[in-house]
Amino acid sequence: MQSLLLGTRNPGKFKEIATILGDSEWSLCSLREFEHVGTAEENSNTYSENAIGKARFYATATGLWALADDSGLEVDALGGAPGVFSARYAGEAASDTDRRELLLSELAKTSSANRTARFVAAVAIANADGTVLNVSEGTCEGRITFAPRGEGGFGYDPLFVPDGYAQTFAELSEDIKNTISHRARALRKTRQFLATL
Question: What is the pTM of this model?
């Protein structure tokens, strides 16, 4: 069984990706198993370029095929911010709570009644020599709450209510989130690609 490195040290994200990829012919491993490998930079202007850069970095650093993703939250009233800077929105050392609080305070300053937003994800796969084999993207439309709700998920999940639902990503069951989320939509395309190999 061939190994596929999931380029994350976040246990919540690893579980989510592994669940969505489902039963496959691949043995999934995490960056937590490679303490000597640094963290890939995210300095591109698009999710796809960031995902590609991370997949290449982790593949060549470990000698394994690597899957990496980049995602972000785009809030219309903030001109699409935080976007590709979602993870660094409140600074490098900020917590998820810090980022959520900053987002809500920035939204409050706009005096806009528009709370529409979307999550966007890109997933890239590179082989051991860093050749990019596949890039998939997914989007989930929704709106931003006025306060965090729910205990599940991570990142901005407690602030995001997907279209067609009354609950935030942090309140929805994993089964529902792993069906409708931006990452789920991108990963289903990735799963189709892996099945062709």
Answer: 0.89
